[in-house]
Amino acid sequence: MEIFDWLSNYEPFINQIWIFTITAMIVLYIICNTIPDRIVGKYLPLHNVFKPQTNVDLDYQSIGYALLHTTWLTKLTHSTIIIEVVLWFIIFQSWHWSFVLLAFSIIFLQSYYIGDKKFGLFFILTSLITFGLSYSTIQYLGKENAVLISKALLMLGGLMRMLSHSAELIPPILVDDSDQFQKLSLKNINWRVLFSTPIGYVGEFGSSLPSRILPIQVNYLYQNVLGIKPQSTLSWSEVNASAKNVLDGGYLKQNTLKEYYNSVMKSK
Known about the structure:
Blueprint: H1 2-9, H2 11-34, H3 37-40, H4 52-55, H5 58-68, H6 72-77, H7 81-95, H8 97-114, H9 117-141, H10 143-164, H11 191-206, H12 214-224, H13 236-249, H14 255-265
Helix pairs in contact: 2-10, 2-11, 5-12, 5-13, 7-8, 7-9, 7-10, 8-9, 9-10, 9-12, 10-11
């Protein structure tokens, strides 16, 4: 296939960027989990979504997602997450079977700690389907071709999501110390906003991992497409209402976001 012939010409370059991006993602996860919020939160909005204890708070994750993805552009660029999860499973299989086992262990733990049985069922089923598709893709394309295109598309997906966020309001704390969302303009661009761009690319690259945005999108889909009401988590209408309240009034309008804001600003 021509696309693979073309990609193979750039394989060394793709691999170099891949190694850098993977390394940066691991470093970002470590930073978000070890360095105080008052430092990291100044450069990466809602960085605590990368923390295990927050990752199992589906309500917080969903509200944060609704807050930061309000335009058609960001919704479009994030609609590929489920495809990218397939690509991650291709990558995991190319590394070692234990990475697939680790991914599913995290998925099962998330489902358990989130505590909503309906959500857990659909999350696990969706993950199994994506794994099955990844296995079939490897059989069809061959491991080498499947891995190469997976690397390229995963990095492209992260880049597109990062760029699309320029259409959104600037999250609190990046421009100033207030808890308010603000429109991007030449007057309020500062070095923190600029520095958040490369960090944002790495964060968006990592957001396509099976345990990051996929559960949020499963939460949306099983409620809004299948019409199933959650047992113990917020309905999506409640998620949207909370997000709108925060967009209009700031982080202090929602308890968990208020706690996050205070944790970042406590040095003040």
